[in-house]
Every structure is written in structure tokens, then in C-alpha cells.
């Protein structure tokens, strides 16, 4: 399963949910008629998407078996995933981009070989994506995911090399 977003809460009283997508475009998840909701390492449950739309930077969706606000509220915090076999294949070289879920958990080191932490998440800022890098006992680092900063993404080795200092 490739995690493509998360449910942030209910929307209205008719059972709609608000979704924070991890896709390049806010409405990218609407390309898939079925979503699997659950948690990483947990059980996934398939939901048919009845209807959806964009509201600012948030995706709104109506799902089967989710008829009222209480049902929608129970989905809050769940991840939304799509089976990898249903997604377009991306080369490991990154020439066509990366799935955010493939970057989460990768170790980040700088050009001096110093560990900056692990990718805990990504943010979409409009100008560029930003890696949220956490190291136990330290504050979170926000590292722009741009060519000038990200030197190499090595999915096989589980590592990202960045031109970023420990003191940034």
C-alpha cells in the first residue's frame, strides 16, 4: 500500500470527510474510485468514493458506508492508501518524481556525512515540497526538496544526501 493522504476530520453533516492529500495535485486521489483507509502496519479497509472535490488546499470526499458526521468523525486520523499495483510505476532514479510514502523513513545525511535525522513527513508549500526531518532529542528540521539542496535520493540504500548543515 502506498499512503496517499490522511483524513483530517469530518466536513458538514452529510458524512463527507476532509483529506490532506500527499499527492502532487490536491485532486490527485480522485483518480482512484476506491480508497483503502487504515493505519501503517494495521488493517486496511476498502471504501468506494462516491463524490469528491477540492476546497482550497483540502480534498473533500463522500465515501460509501459513511452517511453522517459521526461516521466521518470516526475516520479522522486514518491514512488513505492505494495498492502500489494500481499506481503508475516510477523509476528509482527519481526522474519522474517519488511517492512521498517512499521518502518517509529515509535517513538524511549532509555532505559532511553528519546525520540530520529521518524523514517524518513532507509539506507542500506551493513553491516546493519540504522534507520534515526529525532526529530524536532535537527539533524538527525543514529541508527544501529542491535540486539545489537534495543531492541524491538513494531508495535502495534508504538514504537522502542533502547540502544542509547541522546548524541550519
From TrEMBL:
Question: Mind listing the GO molecular function terms for this protein?
Answer: ribosome binding
List residues of the RimM N-terminal domain: 4-85
Gene Ontology cellular-component terms for this entry are:
cytoplasm; ribosome
Q: Which domain of life is it from?
A: Bacteria
Question: Which keywords does this Swiss-Prot/TrEMBL entry list?
Answer: Chaperone, Cytoplasm, Ribosome biogenesis, rRNA processing
Per UniProt, residues of the Ribosome maturation factor RimM PRC barrel domain are: 100-164
The cross-references to SUPFAM superfamilies, in alphabetical order and at most eight, read: PRC-barrel domain, Translation proteins
Q: Which Pfam families match?
A: PRC_RimM (PF24986), RimM (PF01782)
Q: Which InterPro entries match?
A: PRC_barrel-like_sf (IPR011033), PRC_RimM (IPR056792), RimM (IPR011961), RimM_N (IPR002676), RimM_N_sf (IPR036976), Transl_B-barrel_sf (IPR009000)
Q: Is Cell division included in the keywords of this UniProt record? A: no
Q: Where in the cell is it found?
A: Cytoplasm
Mind listing the GO biological process terms from this record?
ribosomal small subunit biogenesis; rRNA processing
The UniProt function text for this chain reads:
An accessory protein needed during the final step in the assembly of 30S ribosomal subunit, possibly for assembly of the head region. Essential for efficient processing of 16S rRNA. May be needed both before and after RbfA during the maturation of 16S rRNA. It has affinity for free ribosomal 30S subunits but not for 70S ribosomes.
The free-text domain note is: The PRC barrel domain binds ribosomal protein uS19.
According to the record's subunit comment, the protein's assembly and interactions are: Binds ribosomal protein uS19.
Family of this protein: Belongs to the RimM family.
Q: Read off the PANTHER family from this record.
A: RIBOSOME MATURATION FACTOR RIMM
Listed name of the protein: Ribosome maturation factor RimM
Biological source species: Nitrosospira multiformis
Amino acid at each position: 500500500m502506498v499512503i496517499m493522504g490522511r483524513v483530517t476530520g469530518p466536513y458538514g453533516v452529510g458524512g463527507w470527510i476532509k483529506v490532506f492529500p500527499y499527492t502532487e495535485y490536491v485532486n490527485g486521489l480522485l483518480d482512484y474510485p476506491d480508497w483503502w483507509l487504515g493505519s501503517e502496519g494495521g488493517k486496511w479497509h476498502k471504501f468506494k468514493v462516491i463524490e469528491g472535490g477540492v476546497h482550497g488546499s483540502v480534498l473533500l470526499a463522500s465515501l460509501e458506508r459513511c452517511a453522517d458526521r459521526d461516521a466521518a468523525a470516526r475516520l479522522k486520523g486514518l491514512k488513505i492508501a492505494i495498492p502500489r499495483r494500481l499506481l503508475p510505476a516510477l523509476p528509482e532514479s527519481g526522474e519522474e518524481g517519488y511517492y512521498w510514502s517512499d521518502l518517509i523513513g529515509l535517513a538524511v545525511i549532509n555532505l559532511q556525512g553528519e546525520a540530520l535525522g529521518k524523514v517524518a513527513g513532507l509539506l507542500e508549500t506551493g513553491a516546493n515540497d519540504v522534507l520534515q526531518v526529525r532526529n530524536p532529542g532535537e527539533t524538527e528540521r525543514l529541508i527544501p526538496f529542491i535540486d539545489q539542496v537534495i543531492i541524491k535520493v538513494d531508495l535502495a540504500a534508504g538514504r537522502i544526501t542533502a547540502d544542509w548543515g547541522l546548524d541550519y
